[in-house]
Every structure is written in structure tokens, then in C-alpha cells.
Backbone:
């Protein structure tokens, strides 16, 4: 080992340098997260692409050809926005829960806890990674959808807005799951037993107007219904739910889960003893 | 002069009710090479955990170079570098990326972080391994990687929690040299170790912690001067049935050809050898039974219990 040549830095920073340092820290976490899921694209990007292709093949082409027109669109077109949203939801969630729990498991979350990185920045970095994967998978799945059906964006603002907000929301949910998880089993319980059923019952494959009143009312308690319908409105221009309600509920959940995440990070739940 | 570390009345009680720290006060001067010693479970790692924000304290205050860790967390954390006991990097990330990312967490732009990473990886002999995944490094290289990562933001206070555990003698010696030179260049170093020889040869000041309390906090010379006796092991030329009686010395037979001799500083070794010669006992070689600090450490900790 050679002679060290380490100088000593100043302890305090000006507000501008402080902001710059935080921006660099955020970029570092975000890029690390993007590189993480990009390196293992066979595990992260390819499976949703294959799954979605199978959905389109079976539900869209084979069974869908027997189905009536839904809200003025053939069945393949009708389910396409929901299937894209399904991939965005599951992948933004999976990215954050596996990355955050992996950091706890390998103890490299300590790299962030020791460094002068505030909790909100840790949250923003991991959520940014989840959004990046959600959007990346969304783009890939949309490209696959175009092999099976025609899609044209009707409302760009709604489409982009709902994609970003939904991936933020489920990244936050994944973060909370990752904070509480103590084993790899714990990170698969919520996606398997909560997220998947809610997603399938969230109006991907059907309009809730086709359901009996009681099931229609029950469906309205499912937050995923609002996001799927908002995205369908953005693409096709049809939805079972008003956009104000859909965006209001999504933003409300983001505020709730964001507050819970920050509270847990500040307490050190699952990260500090 | 601002102290590198100032701890007051630090208490930690874990959720299971175990009190690991019972009101510790500790000062480490800027520029010091400081040893924090104690038996397993004494509270060393809890103390380091609180200083490095990995453990929540129950009460008390911690200041790093005058910055309160709670109220001025950003400034305090920038001063500190930590080399933990356990490997705590992502085993699947390349060496260079681990070090550069840590620079990013401290607000160092990527280009500058890469330059700094090259410098520290060169210094620690890891530059050739920069593209390898951390999991492919040897144990000694992983330890050096953690030191490189801790130095990327040029901390003024470096805490090393058993940095030489499990590394071979050659590497341990080169790490001692590296740390001594780092300290000479102005970095305050706090070291915990189970190799007491390491603390004795490197550190100027020492604190011993046991059962959550400081049982000693002084300079190394004063501490060692308190040791009035040393124990030597003598290898004999011929087998011996009974140890001889030599006034002033406590001799114990360890086996046929080995004796241990407890020697007071006042008496020295000449009278011992004269006495052994008078009994016709020829000594082939002798060595310290344990290093001096180890003897003191055991006495202090045993005294507490």
C-alpha cells in the first residue's frame, strides 16, 4: 500500500453547494438503481415482455375474438391499457422492494445511512429507480402490444401523468414492504396475495359496468381500478371512472404512503437498531 | 482546539431491554490515533454504531469536530469515515463503482469521484481489481476496499472496527503502515481491535469499555507504566521435575522443558538467570507470555467482573 495523500474537506457548505451535493447524491442513487435492473434485464425486463405477449395471444387473439365490442373497441384493444398498467404496477413495486431489501440483506444500505443523505433523498432515489423500471417495462410492453393491436394515445397529459403517478405510488408501496421485510419470503407475500388479486380485479379485463351492483360497488374500493381506468382514458378515451376522482385518489395514496415511508425511515424501522 | 469526537452521557437500551451503554463520556483529540478496546459484547460496536448513525441512541450527545450529530447531521457526517467490522457493500457491484458511488452519496461529482477513487485504489493496491465484482475479491482485498470507500470523501475522523480481523500478517503490517501514515497526514483515527499488539504499537490514547461503561480512558504510556510485572516463558535445555525456588520470582512448570516466570519490574531478569544457573538449569530461549497491553486489559476487565 502506498503513502496516503488525503486532504481534509470543509465541514459546512453554502446553500447552493448543499443543493448541488443533494442533487449529486440523488443522481447517484438513481443511476445505481437503473444500472441494477438493467444489468439483470433477463430477470427484470424480459419476463413482463413474455407474460404480456402471452396475455395478448390468449386473452386478446384466441379468446378475445369471441368477445363482444367493449366501449366501442375490440377486446384486444380494450385490455391493452390495463395489461400495460399491470406491468408498470408490478415492476415498479418489485424493483423497489427487491432493491431495498437486498440493500438491507447485504448491509449496503449502511452506505447511505452513514453518508449525509437525508431520508427524503433516500426515498426519492429508490422511488426514482422504481419509476424508471416501471416506465422502461411499460415502453417494452407497449411495443409488444403494438404487434397485436393498434393503439393511439388520445390524451397525452393523462397518459404520461397516470403512468408516472402510478409508478411512484407502487414504488412507495414497495419501499414500505422492503422496510418491513425480514426475509425474501416477506418481499413476495404482498405481491402474491395482495397486489396481483387487486390488479386482476382492477378492471383490466372488463368494464365494471358489466358487474352486478354489489360487485361494482366493491370494485370501487380497489385503488388500482382508478389507475387502470385513467390510463385507459389516456389511450382510448373511455373509462368507468371520472379523471378528477382517479387522479385525486392516486395523489391521496401517494401522500399517505410517502408520509408513512418518511416516518419509517426517520425512525430507522428495519434499518437502524 | 475542537475535539474530533466528544461523547456525553451516551446511553443505549435496545428494544429487548438490554442496556448496551450506561452513560459513556469520551473525548478524542483531533489528530489522535485512539484505541477503543473491550471484550465481546462490551458496547464498542454500539458506540461506533451510534457515532456512524447506524444505531439509534437512547440519550446523550455525540459531536464530531464540534458538529452535533443530531442537530447538524450533514456537517457531522461529512467529517466521518467508517470501516465496519462486517463487509457491507453490494457484492455484485464492481470495485470502482462501489467507491465512486460512495463519493456520490457525499455530494462528490462523478468525474472528481473517479479521480479520487483511482488515487485511493492505487494507494490500497486495488487499482488492478477495479472492474471486478466485489464478491470475487479475497478477504484482505475486501477489507482494503472498505478502507478505500471510507476515504473517498476525505474524512477528518476515520473509525475502523477491527480492520485487520482475518487478514494475514503481511497485509496486517502493511495496513498498520498505511494507517500510521494516514494519521501522520492529519486524519484522526479510532481503532477497535482484538489484536492488542496492534493497539499498543499504533495508538497514543486508549479507552477500555466493559459492560457498557468506560473502565479506562488514558494515554497508552501511562496505562502501560501501571504494569508492574511481566510474565516470561523459558525454554529449558533439560527436563525439569519441579520448578526451583528463587526468592522474588514466581516460577511455574508448564511442561517438562518449559517454565513460566512472573518478573517484577524492580527485580529484572539478571537475578532470575543467576538463580537458575545456581540450580544448574540452562535456558535456551525466552519470550513474553503475552504482550503488555493484553495483560493489563485482562486485569482491568477481570477486575470489573
Residues:
Amino acid at each position: 500500500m502506498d503513502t496516503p495523500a488525503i486532504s481534509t474537506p470543509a465541514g459546512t457548505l453554502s446553500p447552493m453547494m448543499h443543493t448541488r451535493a443533494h442533487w449529486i447524491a440523488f443522481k447517484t442513487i438513481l443511476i445505481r438503481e437503473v444500472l441494477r435492473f438493467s444489468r439483470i434485464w433477463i430477470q427484470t425486463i424480459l419476463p413482463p415482455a413474455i407474460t404480456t405477449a402471452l396475455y395478448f395471444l390468449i386473452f386478446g387473439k384466441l379468446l378475445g375474438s369471441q368477445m363482444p365490442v367493449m366501449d366501442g373497441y375490440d377486446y384486444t384493444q380494450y385490455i391493452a391499457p390495463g395489461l400495460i398498467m399491470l406491468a408498470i404496477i408490478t415492476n415498479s413495486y418489485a424493483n423497489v422492494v427487491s432493491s431495498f431489501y437486498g440493500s438491507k440483506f447485504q448491509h449496503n444500505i449502511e452506505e447511505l445511512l452513514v453518508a449525509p443523505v437525508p431520508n427524503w433523498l433516500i426515498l426519492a432515489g429508490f422511488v426514482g429507480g422504481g419509476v424508471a423500471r416501471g416506465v422502461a417495462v411499460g415502453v417494452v410492453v407497449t411495443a409488444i402490444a403494438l404487434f397485436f393491436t393498434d393503439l393511439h394515445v388520445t390524451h397525452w397529459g393523462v397518459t404520461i401523468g397516470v403512468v408516472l403517478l402510478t409508478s411512484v405510488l407502487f414504488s412507495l408501496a414497495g419501499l414500505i414492504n422492503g422496510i418491513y421485510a425480514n426475509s425474501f419470503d416477506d418481499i413476495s407475500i404482498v405481491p402474491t396475495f395482495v397486489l396481483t388479486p387487486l390488479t386482476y380485479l382492477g378492471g383490466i379485463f372488463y368494464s365494471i359496468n358489466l358487474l352486478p351492483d354489489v360487485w361494482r360497488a366493491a370494485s370501487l374500493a380497489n385503488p388500482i381500478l382508478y389507475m387502470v381506468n385513467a390510463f385507459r382514458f389516456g389511450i382510448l378515451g373511455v373509462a368507468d371512472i371520472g379523471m378528477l376522482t382517479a387522479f385525486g385518489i392516486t395523489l391521496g395514496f401517494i401522500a399517505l404512503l410517502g408520509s408513512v415511508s418518511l416516518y419509517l425511515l426517520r425512525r430507522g424501522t428495519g434499518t437502524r437498531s | 482546539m475542537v475535539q474530533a469526537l466528544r461523547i456525553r452521557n451516551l446511553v443505549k437500551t435496545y428494544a429487548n431491554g438490554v442496556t448496551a451503554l450506561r452513560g459513556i463520556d469520551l473525548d478524542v483529540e483531533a489528530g489522535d490515533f485512539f484505541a477503543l478496546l473491550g471484550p465481546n459484547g462490551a458496547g464498542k460496536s454500539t458506540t461506533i454504531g451510534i457515532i456512524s448513525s447506524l444505531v439509534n441512541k437512547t440519550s446523550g450527545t455525540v459531536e464530531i469536530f464540534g458538529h452535533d450529530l443530531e442537530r447538524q447531521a450533514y456537517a457531522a457526517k461529512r467529517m466521518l469515515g467508517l470501516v465496519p467490522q462486517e463487509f457491507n457493500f453490494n457484492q455484485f457491484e464492481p470495485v470502482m463503482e462501489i467507491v465512486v458511488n460512495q463519493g456520490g452519496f457525499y455530494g462528490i461529482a462523478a468525474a472528481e469521484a473517479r479521480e479520487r477513487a483511482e488515487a485511493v485504489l492505487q494507494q490500497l493496491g486495488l487499482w488492478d481489481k477495479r472492474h471486478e465484482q466485489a464478491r470475487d475479491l479475497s478477504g484482505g482485498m475486501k477489507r482494503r476496499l472498505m478502507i478505500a470507500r471510507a476515504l473517498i470523501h476525505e474524512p477528518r475522523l476515520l473509525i475502523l472496527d477491527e480492520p485487520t480481523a482475518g487478514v494475514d500478517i503481511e497485509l496486517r503490517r502493511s495496513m498498520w503502515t498505511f494507517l500510521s501514515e494516514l494519521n501522520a497526514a492529519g486524519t484522526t483515527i479510532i481503532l477497535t481491535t482484538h489484536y492488542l499488539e496492534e493497539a499498543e504499537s499504533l495508538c497514543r490514547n486508549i479507552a477500555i469499555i466493559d459492560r457498557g461503561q468506560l473502565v479506562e480512558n488514558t494515554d497508552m504510556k501511562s496505562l502501560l507504566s501501571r504494569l508492574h510485572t511481566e510474565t516470561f516463558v523459558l525454554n529449558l535445555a533439560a527436563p525439569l521435575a519441579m520448578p526451583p525456588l528463587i526468592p522474588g520470582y514466581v516460577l511455574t512448570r508448564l511442561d517438562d522443558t518449559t517454565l513460566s516466570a512472573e518478573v517484577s519490574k524492580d527485580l529484572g531478569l539478571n537475578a532470575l538467570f543467576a538463580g537458575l544457573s545456581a540450580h544448574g538449569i540452562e535456558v535456551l530461549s525466552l519470550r513474553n507470555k503475552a504482550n503488555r497491553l493484553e495483560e493489563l486489559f485482562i486485569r482491568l476487565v477481570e477486575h470489573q467482573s
In short: The two ends of chain A are 35 Å apart (CA to CA). Chain A has one domain: 24-267.
